[in-house]
Every structure is written in structure tokens, then in C-alpha cells.
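Q: I have 444 residues here and want to know how they pack in 3D. Can you give me a structure?
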Amino acid sequence: MLRSRFCLTGLLVLLFSLIAVESVLGQTTEVFTADGDFTVPAGVSNITVEVWGGGGGGARAGGGGAGGYARSVLPITSGTVLPFTVGAGGAEDAAGGTTAFDGGVVAASGGQAGGVTAGGAGGSGTAGEISFTGGTGGTGSDSNQQFPSGGGGGSPTENGDGGDANGFTAGTGEGNGGAGGADRNTEGGPGVVPGGGGGGSAGPGGSAAGAGAGGQVRITYQVASAGNSAVAAAPLSVEANGVASTMLTLEVADSDGVGIAGLLEGDFTFNGTGSADASGFSETGPAGTYTIAFTNETVENLSIQVEVGLVDLGTTAEISFVAPEASAGNSTVVADPLSVLANGVASTTLTLEVADSDGVAITGLQASDFTFNGTGSADGSGFSETGPAGTYTIAFTNETVEDLQIQVEVGSVDLGTTAQISFISPTYTIRGTIVDGGGGLENV
């Protein structure tokens, strides 16, 4: 198995084209021309797989068709071993073989062999997100097969179909076709890897036709680098109300500092998340930057560690999910009724609706969490948490005639003050006489 591996660094790219620097800098490409296995390196979470089928062999006249092409971007797990088969080039009068990656997830068929009267058809991509067709082989120019034979078809590039042969002139592409024999003493040329069709040969008893070229698997990927990646969270103090969130910003780059785009939420592993929930994953600018929000309903401190393809990108500073704080603007204090007999039995009920700055009800408070100011001689009792969530009630009775406005706090937050509550003199009857609280008498 021939396996070539090269890192396209900035220097190498500059030698070929300044225009291509951004598109290939930092990528690693592996090329395979024989059957084998690909083991996904650490730090890799997706790969671009390209396959070319084998080229068809030439015949006594017609050139062979080129192999087809297919491409897909595959989400992947580091350490996974993925098998592939590479289609062989066809010998004279034989079709090229199919190239298949991971059992046919990405696959391309081989080109057909040339014929006596026509060139072979090109292969096609049979599985993959993108596919192109190989060029058709050329046809010899004389029915008696005594003159130039057809060239082989060219294989597709990553951007389009392969070129058809024109007479004995071979088609061009990622792998060029072999030239057709110019006369009965000239052999057909072999196709060029990957997947070029073989050139035809002239006349019966003449020279041999060219073989088709073998197929190819090309795998391109970027490896995440911990040293060039970053993980940050903001804010670091968040109310544990299930609504307020901290936002993690993930900057993922390879060893050349080039951002790795196109990652999905499933490509990341988040450790140390406790009871927090993640949502809203998004890829943002610049390239290789991602965000995800975490909310929590549990009071706890967390440091979230993030991985991509088994590479530790980093850990956030400590995030404190704190108990929600009541908001005066989202809370209310109401007393009812506002006129109550001051007999130690009749009561007014304070209804306290407590919510935080996000409008989320704060549940689970106890009577001791509240401070009631301005209660005069009144006594509070019967504290209870009722529905809806975040609603509490407490009753106040009094034996003293007085007017009160009760101000309520939770922690240091002023929730509000009731309207004026009047505890008034009770009236009662003694032997047919109504006696008010002020000592006045009225016959009945």
C-alpha cells in the first residue's frame, strides 16, 4: 500500500499559489492508492473523504473511460478505524474497479473499458454528498481500425467532471487519460492516477492498449491544538433559576493557528457540568469560534472542561450558579382586607409574590427569609408557600387599634409596602346595648 502524508504548511502553499493559502493552510491530507484502514487521529472530529474509481482499460480502437468521483464530510470519533478499498485500473478490455470508503459510505465506480467502435463510459460517484463523472474514452477514427485510436478519459477533479477524450487526444482531469495509439505501431498510453482511462491501440494485430489507472482515496482534516485553542465563560456568576445563563466561547484552531470551522455540538465533550443544561450551540465568527449557553436550577460552583476529538481545549474559570435574588420590580406585596377588627382574632392576609430579575418565581423561601417592618403591635402567623410558584401568605392579627403599613424584605431587597391597614375598634353587645371600643353606649 502506498500511503503518502503531508502537512500543507504556509511555506509549501506559497510555493504553489498565494491565492490558496487560506483554503489549505493547516490542513493535513493523506492519500491512499491501495486497500487499507484509516485511523482517525486525536483531535480530529470530522474528515473530508474523496474517492476516485479505477480507470477503464483501452481496447483495440476505443479508449477507456475514467473512474468516477465522490466526496463527503464525515463527522467522526478520534481513534476510530475505517476500512477502504481502492479500485484497480482495468487492464486492456477490462473495466476499472470501484473505490469505497467505510463500507461504501463514500464510493465511486470505475470507468468502462474501451470498445471496438466506441470509447468506454466514465464511472460516477455512487455514494457521497458530491459526485462527478469520469470522462468518456475516445473512438478510433477509422472503421477498419487502421488509424489513430481513442485516448482515455480524464478523471474528475474536486470541482467537476473529467474531460472526455477527443480522438486519440486523451481527456484531462485529476488523472489524465492515456493517449490513443497514433498508428498500428504505437501502443495506447496508460491512464494517470487517480482513475485516468487507458488509451486505445490501433488495428488488429497491432500494439497493446493502455491500462486504466488505479483509483485513490484522499482524506483531508484539521487536528485541534490545545495550545492554539481557548475556552472562556461569561459571566462567571449566574442565578440558578433555569433561565439566566453563562455563555461559553470556544475558539478551536489547529497547530498552525488556523480556525477549524464546521464542527457540530456532538463533536465537543463537556465535562464537569454538574446539574447545568446546555443549549443554543452555534458557530459564530471568526472561523473556528463556537458558543453554547449553560443554565442551572441548582446552586453550585462548576469549572467546565471542553474536549474536541480527545484533545483538551481547556477549562473555564469557576462559574458560580448562585441562589436567585429577589427583584423589587418583579415582586409584589398586597394586604387584604385593609380594615380589620383589632380583636386579636380577625386578620389581614399579606400575599407576597417573589420573583428574580428574570421574572422567574423564587420558591422554597421560609418565614425566616422575610423581614416585616412597621408591624406595630400586630402579630404574624400561618406563614405558607402557596400556588402559583413564588407566592407566599402570612396573616396578621392585632389587639391594638392602629393604622399600619407593613414593609417586606427578602435578604436586603425591599419587596414593597402594603397599603394602609386599619385595625379598628371592635363592637360588642351587653344586655341589648352595643358598646364600641371607645366606651360609647347605644340602647337597642
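Q: Anything worth noting?
A: Confidence is low (pLDDT under 50) at residues 1-24, 437-444. The first helix runs from residue 10 to 16.
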